[in-house]
């Protein structure tokens, strides 16, 4: 695994170029986030697997001791989405093979180039033949074949909630073990005592990084009344500074969306919000996009900020998965917790406040698998990652992935 990490790292630039061309993300994002993280996934799990311990208990009155032993789960089916292609595929392959499984992995049909490039390195890295099998194909064909195959007892899936639900149905007759990392509609809660100098640029990034095509992106921003106008003015000013440009332009903050259909879907949400009486403060329909000639027909869109939108509106309830964020006002802690939780998803939330008591109280009550306070997207891979409610089932991370990709046995010895 360390050898494979080294080989990908040696070709980092070629992988980053391919990821950017295939997905539309900026070359800078691919170079600094996607590919380095794919490399790190292999290094991290190669070492973390060495440090797990098992449990042991003594039952002297029965003359027994018990201990746990873990064995590989078998063949793991791994299915990943298009937004962070190699990053998310390797986040599954690395722990699965570290635990001794073989895998059948399927990247998204929209972005499979870097997975194919990695295939060519498997032999060189001396990964034994048959351990990492990558199949290319669409969800309904290749994906369903993996999910409904009786000899694949584990399925780790990252993608939309709708597909996750379908996978649960298809797996049920086989009682498969499932790990599902699904959609999100993530709130940022900004209290009056927040450090706006840090909060505003980070919230622009959390809303629009990778064109807003990250499951952890912020899409509902709740701002306390006392700072609402100042926040909104500065947030829009900062958003307007974000450069949408050719994915190969190293100074661009945002590239192109994944497809024409997705771009149309995202734009439709902005239209719907307008029709419901919301105000569009910048972006789609307000400013025009300046692009180099060769990018004129690409699927680009400006980062868009919507306000005066109701909590029940589809823009506040449904996952848009694009560069669109809504900003609304709140008064009290109690109120904002209720409104932030008033949604079917529960993946990630962000709290901005300098009051540590408030941060703890709100973090505890938010229905969210991850809560960042005064920051965003800082991850320790040792700790659990995953969502509540419609955002998923199970967690991934050092210990959680180890537990998912192995079966535990309890062994009792009488002496
Ligand atoms: P998607 O559900 O359409 O596809 C994801 C993968 O599932 C693809 O490889 C696809 O081919 C496959 N697939 C589709 N139908 C299938 C079926 N019937 N059986 C088996 N496999 C099938 O999702 P997407 O559009 O590629 O990705 C975007 C979604 O992924 C968003 O909802 C986003 O929030 C979510 N996501 C979640 C996380 C997380 O960690 N929670 C991370 C990234 C993306």
UniProtKB/TrEMBL annotation:
Xref: PROSITE patterns: ALDEHYDE_DEHYDR_CYS (PS00070), ALDEHYDE_DEHYDR_GLU (PS00687)
Active site: residue positions: 181
Keywords: NAD, Oxidoreductase
An example molecular function term from Gene Ontology annotations: retinal dehydrogenase (NAD+) activity
Residues in the signal sequence: none
CDD domains listed in its UniProt record: ALDH_F8_HMSADH
InterPro entries: Ald_DH/histidinol_DH (IPR016161), Ald_DH_C (IPR016163), Ald_DH_CS_CYS (IPR016160), Ald_DH_CS_GLU (IPR029510), Ald_DH_N (IPR016162), Aldehyde_DH_dom (IPR015590)
Gene3D superfamilies referenced in this protein's UniProt entry, alphabetically: Aldehyde Dehydrogenase, Chain A, domain 1, Aldehyde Dehydrogenase, Chain A, domain 2
Superkingdom of the source species: Eukaryota
Domain Aldehyde dehydrogenase: 1-411
Family to which this protein belongs: Belongs to the aldehyde dehydrogenase family.
Protein name: Aldehyde dehydrogenase family 8 member A1 isoform X3
Species annotation: Alligator sinensis (Chinese alligator)
Source species taxonomy: Eukaryota, Metazoa, Chordata, Craniata, Vertebrata
Gene name as annotated: ALDH8A1
